[in-house]
Amino acid sequence: MKRAATLDSWEQTKLLADERRLRLLRLLMARPATLTQLAARVGKSPAWVQHHLRQLERAGLVTLVEERRRGRVREKYYQATAGAWVLQRLVLPESDQPVAVFAGSHDLALEHLAQDLAPYLTIVLHPVGSLDGLVNLRQHLCHFTGSHLWDESGLYNTPYVRRLFPLHEVRLMTLAHRVQGLMVAAGNPLGIRSLADLGREDVRFVNRNPGSGTRVWLEAHLQEAGLQPSQIRGYAWEVETHTAAAQAVASGRADVALGLEAAAAQQGLDFIPLFAERFDLVFPQHQTKALTPLLEAIQTAHFRKTLAQLRGYNPAHTGEEIAV
């Protein structure tokens, strides 16, 4: 049975940046071959193949699997050490200042926090959605993530974290409680009041990306509104942040979006509140020390003041740790 492996060193990555070596490796992933056989496939000399093969062998990507004698000739068969490779590398800037990569749900308060911490900690924000953020964290492609995933139990985040991190080697800390709802043009000219209005023929919707906490909540509650995605104009139009969704409505390209009250206020939109949610930061236990500037900043009066200035944000439980 063939198994996939992860490219876990820069040496391996650099070797495969050369398309010639990559071609040899792909051939040896399919089946074992000799230098002569490989040379015939790529149209090069056996000596040329041997040069590149030795580099792949030293990097642990190729190995000698069999030797056969044919008269006076000894044939060596090489094969790739895995059936496929996955390239997963977190590339960080070379800097004297510590760097923390965030991959997760988009949040306006976190953007403010990243700006405030810039002199002490560089926070690189990568909005991929709550679910993909947790997956990124599990695959070591970020240092911390943010999530607001609603579960059928009524709980936020913990059911997903327990499933993805069964050993509970992560911590959850509440950043804020936030209000989400329908963002509509100023004055609400179409009279939109509820999710049921998304099914109207005169209403254009802009959606969030799959795996985002907002999208997960929406898909779970559409049935209650008696709607199927196919009934909603614009359901396939997806944006990655609350800000982008609000901008689509403000520009007139869409009539309604589901998103944060704070994002609606920033764009001068009207807002119909639908639910309050808990937004948590999730990070590995071993990253606690590296994230100390961030975790300390969350506890400050300055940050709570920032939250209070964002419409729909509630700092009452900010900084509280949630038991996994």
Q: Count of helical segments? A: 12
Would you tell me the overall average pLDDT? 94
Instruction: Report the top-level CATH class of the largest domain.
Output: Alpha Beta
Summed up, the domain count is 2
Question: What best-fitting shape do the alpha-carbon axes yield?
Answer: elongated
CATH architecture of the largest domain: 3-Layer(aba) Sandwich
Structural overview:
Helix 3 (35-42) crosses helix 4. It contains 12 helices and 14 strands. The protein is elongated, with a radius of gyration of 26 Å. It is an alpha/beta fold and 324 residues long. The longest helix has 13 residues, at 46-58. The relative contact order is 0.14. Helix 5 links the parallel strand 5 and strand 6. The strands form 4 sheets. Strands 7, 8, 9, 10, 11, 12, 13 and 14 form an 8-stranded mixed beta sheet that branches. The chain has 2 domains: 4-87, Arc Repressor Mutant, subunit A, CATH 1.10.10; 99-322, 3-Layer(aba) Sandwich (D-Maltodextrin-Binding Protein, domain 2), CATH 3.40.190. It has helices spanning 10-16, 19-30, 35-42, 46-58, 108-117, 130-138, 158-164, 213-221, 242-250, 261-266, 292-298, 301-308; strands spanning 4-7, 62-70, 73-80, 84-87, 99-104, 122-127, 145-147, 170-184, 205-208, 238-239, 256-260, 270-284, 313-314, 321-322. The mean pLDDT is 94.
Please outline what is shown here.
With 324 residues, the protein is an alpha/beta fold. The protein is 32% helix and 26% strand.
Keywords:
324 residues, alpha/beta, Arc Repressor Mutant, subunit A, D-Maltodextrin-Binding Protein, domain 2, 2 domains, 8-stranded mixed sheet, two-stranded parallel ribbon, 12 helices, 32% helix, elongated
